[in-house]
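Q: I'm writing up a methods section and want to include an example of the input and output format. Could you take the sequence below and give the corresponding predicted structure tokens, formatted cleanly so I can copy it straight into the document?
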Amino acid sequence: TFRVGEMFIRQLLQLKGMSVDKAMAIVECYTSPQILITALENSGKNGEQLLANIQVGDKKRRLGPAISKAIYQLYTMNEPNYLFESWLEEWRNEAVLRNSELQKHFTKALDSLRRYPLPLESGKECIILQHFGTKLCSMLDKKLEEYRRQEFTKAVDACFSQTSSNDDRTVVSREKPVEKCKIVEVQEKSSAVAKQAKNTKKNASKRLANANEIASREADRQISLEPSTFDINILCIFRIDKISWNIYRTSTEYSE
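A: Here is the clean output for your methods example:
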């Protein structure tokens, strides 16, 4: 029989990157898995880095954030291999619909996976579990590759859509000042036209006043003659011219 501390160390050694010195350092701080789980649950958001500063060995090296995060996931995650479990359930249900004998094999593999407390990074690592053969492990790896490809495509599409939306916002923000400039320009033109029309009205009124003054002055200068007086004046001028012509003619004859 093993004591609780020894079983705890054996359990911690299942993690990647874990050594005997690191496991013993953790057990010195937390003597049982239940004490460690309680501390991780009470730490809240800082649970992943709760064990990062534990000193290991004679050189007092830090345990590190990577192993601290792995231990947090090990003792707090209810389903460390959720994807593998969901795919096994899917294949088992398909086998049930086909009434295939593989349904028993998938059921046994699923039970074995659920009893394993540590996260598995690939289907190949499932070979250590019971009822997992090379064919089933390769099926999980293919499914995992498809899943990662789909997630990568979704991430790229999301990044592209976000970039295009930012570009559209930039174009709109660039167009707004142009529209404002156009509005200001139209307002300036309309104000200039209004000023010009106002000045034109003022000049027209001034010109009209000047024309009226000139017309009144010209009217004052003109001689207004009645028809009878005009006829008399013409007759007098004609007679005077005739008399002067007769005098000039007489003087010319006398000289000859």
